[in-house]
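Sequence in, structure out.
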Amino acid sequence: MQKCKVIAIANQKGGVGKTTTTLNLAIGLAKNGFHVLTVDFDPQGDLTSSLGWKNSDEMDHTIASMMDSTIKDNDANFVGTVLHHPEGIDVIPSNIDLSDFETRLVNEFDRENILKNCLAPIKESYDYVLIDCPPSLAMLTINALSAADEVLIPVQAQYLPAKGMTKLLRTVSKVQRKINNNLKIAGVAITLADMKTNLAKDTIEMIHENFGQHFKVFNSVIPVAVKASEATVSGKSVYSYARDSKVAVAYDELTKEVIHASKEKRRSDLIR
């Protein structure tokens, strides 16, 4: 088995397709033969719900309970917490209990590394761990970036979300300098693009011009699609719900780009 790669899917702005990207990238990787764990790290529990578990607020075993065990130096209950989705991925669910950790972590020892320490005993059982971050740049997101090898940034193909990416990049840079020297930017995934509009086309061009020389901007563009929203309501991926749709094809292409980038990174590391 290859060394596990942990990818945080992060953007402080909500509504940019972050959870949908986490879900479909994870299942896309599983379709390509990889063993994948997803971590719902948003107190809203959208990833948990989108994968079919609609009663997350009634769950006793979640990422919050696992982190609580880690803080108390107890063994986390992985067996009772990790859920198994029919499309071949594992899920650590989340619910509103996680919201308490935003303030609680401030007073904890080694507060930036609680999630990293929590996942350490289990992550090497997987090829990929994808962390669906909350739409903020507070302590939960800092924990996700500390635990990650890479951060993938979904950005909606509109001017203001693209402009707001600068704030996230400053946070990533600070984490790289002070907490996680090994954190890399996997790339920017352009999402919710209405390619019938000049605004989307101009925004995509602007993202490539402003950021493409600094890090990867994935060629795959995820279109705005009702099918993607319908799929999350049904608890399925776009591959299962609408296999031949444009959005399914786009996520399949994004998955292949992520896999290719990982292979190139491993090849580069071996040469060194």
